[in-house]
Amino acid sequence: MALTLLEKIKVWLFKAVMGVFYGLFLLLSPRRDAALSGKKLPPVTNPLLLVSAAQLAKMIRRKEVSSVEVVQAYIDRIQEVNPLLNAVIKDRFDDALQEAAQADKLIEQETGGEDVLEDRLPLLGVPISIKESLSLQGMPNAVGVVSRRNILSTTDSPVVAYLKRAGAIPMGVTNTPELCMWYESNNHLYGISNNPYNLERIVGGSSGGEGAILAGAGAVIGVGSDIAGSIRMPAFFNGIFGHKTSTGIVSSEGEFPPCSGRQEEYESVGPMCRYAEDLLPMLKIMAGPNAQKLSLDTKVDLKKLRFFTIPHDGGSFMVSPVSKELLEIQRKVVQHLEADLGVKVQEVRFPELRYSAEIWIACMGLPDKDGKHPQPFAELMGEPGRPMRPFWELMKWMVGKSDHTMAAIGLTIFEALQPFKPSTSSFDIEQKESLQRKMEELLGNDGVFLYPTHPRVAPKHHYTLFTPFDCSYTGIFNILGMPVTQCPLGLGKEGLPLGVQVGAWRLQDHLTLEVALYLEKAFGGWRDPGAS
Hints:
Layout: H1 5-28, H2 53-61, H3 67-85, E1 88-91, H4 93-109, H5 114-120, E2 127-131, H6 158-165, E3 169-174, E4 186-187, E5 191-192, H7 208-215, E6 221-226, H8 232-237, E7 241-244, E8 268-273, H9 279-287, E9 306-309, H10 324-341, E10 345-347, H11 356-364, H12 377-382, H13 390-398, H14 406-417, H15 425-443, E11 447-451, H16 472-480, E12 484-491, E13 497-504, H17 509-523
Parallel strand pairs: 2-3, 2-6, 9-10, 9-11
Antiparallel strand pairs: 1-3, 4-5, 6-8, 7-8, 7-12, 11-13, 12-13
């Protein structure tokens, strides 16, 4: 859809303003660590690191390998790559080795056989990484905020408890942006995380540490959360799988910051992993009793599904256009589906998608059923003390004295200016409701669609500050409550991961997970960044 003259002027002005800010940022921001320049991750050499969690669990149950051996292999890998990635910000290696020894002892003592163990403890002895925003007993829960540096979790969040009960062994917690509200994982408490495929590129956010350590083979499965693409963007930038669940399936209780307003409707906690076969069993565990709402045991015949492709959002002046290589890889997926499965992939367009950013912003600010608005980010940034003063922090940042990143400061300034912005939320809500009706009508219970995960491959560090609304390619599906799986599709011309989102209507998570398995076989899935 062609832009109007007014929209073209808006595009020009937006790019001009962002360009000026980018120049100022480069002038005033601290220099990057030159020691990382030109370095790359070492290749994976231990074969235990190249096995899915499902297969590792089977090998451990059958005593083909001990849990202690597997956990030690991952400890060695984390110690090898984390100095380059800065993904794991606090480990629990001693506790993990003790828990692995207990798992091995339990297997030795089990008299009911392998099937009993698999049913009761499907992840027994398998290491896992956890996003730091989710409570893991004894681990930090600072979410990159300097004023929360001394806060430790006293309990496990429900989703972490479910995974531990299934036998998984947490290895540590991973980095996020401040308050998880940006799509680059950088803060002044733990520092910046680096992309395994190119250390000068971002890992995404807010589950960026998870994406990086998984892609770097320092973990096999992990847990992320997603309110605007915080699972899917890191999974895309780091070339792994990530699943945003249908709304209301996996509990976000025990995560900081807690949801307020109507944000719980948009938040999703979900699995991240290198191998597609781990998505479904992880989701079964993480959903707890809500797993029965999904048809996860239903066999899916891909040839009987209806496939759709949406090449882009139609052209929003607030969002970057989709790159040629990402448009091309999505076309290749369409061609492969049609040639191999004999299906017809229909191209569809939704004019409402042009307003994805505005829809997300409007919905994130809605009050709850009691009329209570979301807690301001300035308050959350200051906890447990007084609220952050964003304009004062901006001046401090300019002389290198702020405890906050420019992303966090910019977010609170944007929030502070919202009362002075002309309200268009009623139009945005109408667009959301229209898109929701059209999506439900199109997809039903047997339709899946392809859509870019992001307009560009992983950008250079800090560049997200000047493309703040590119996350609308993922965020729109949080607002719609739909299940979406990010699938890796190999590496592009710069050696950076390519990918695509596979979505379905609500509660049809099993459809997107089955397509993920198919695309992994067709396009090769995760690639070892050390070998690339």
